Amino acid sequence: MAIRRRVEAQRRIMGRLGKGADLLEGLRAVCREENVSMGRIEAIGAVTGARIGYYDQHAGAYRYSSIHGGREIVSLMGNISLSEGNPMIHAHIALADREGRVNGGHLAPGTTVFACEYIIEAFEPVGGAALSRSLDRETGLLLWKELQD
Q1: The model's pTM
Q2: Which end of the chain has the smaller Cβ count within 10 Å, N or C?
Q3: Is 96 exposed, middle or buried (0-12, 13-18, 19+ CB in 10 A)?
Q4: Sorted alphabetically, which keywords does the UniProt record give (predicted)?
Q5: How do the domains of the chain map onto residue ranges?
Q6: What is residue 120's predicted lDDT score, i.e. its pLDDT?
Q7: 39-73 burial string, b = 16+ CB within 10 Å, else e?
Q8: 3.40.50.720, 3.40.50.20, 3.30.1330.80, 3.90.550.10: which CATH number matches 12-144?
C-alpha cells in the first residue's frame, strides 16, 4: 500500500545547536518550539561521539553501535512527522573519520554535538491532515499510516 500526501513548504528555519547537545533531542526541541509537525531536515557539522542504528529486518529490531571520538557530519537528512501527537524526526547520518572513512545509519539518541548547523523546512498538508506514524505490522517499524482526512 502506498501512502502519499501533497504538501506545501511553509517556512524554513536555520540554526545552530550548542556544543554538547544531544543531536537528535536538540533537533526535536527545535521542532517542538517552532511548532513543526511535518517537514524535512538536513544538517552538517561535527560530533564528539555518536550512536547510530541499523534495522535488522530478520530480527525486526534496531541494532545500535557507538562511535567514539570526533567525526564530521558528512550528511544528515531526514523527515519530520507526528508520532502520538509529538514531532518525530526520522533521520539518517553519515559520519567521516580523519581518513575519510564513513560510517552511517539511523540517527539515535546519544550522538553528541561538537558543532551543528541545520535547516528545517516546515510543510503543511494540502487539503488534509498532517502525516503521522504508527506501528506497521508488516515491517515492525513506525511508518506513515493510512491517512484520514
Answers
A1: 0.91
A2: N
A3: middle
A4: DNA-binding
A5: 12-144
A6: 98
A7: bbbebebebbbbbbeeeeeeeeeeeeeebeeebbb
A8: 3.30.1330.80
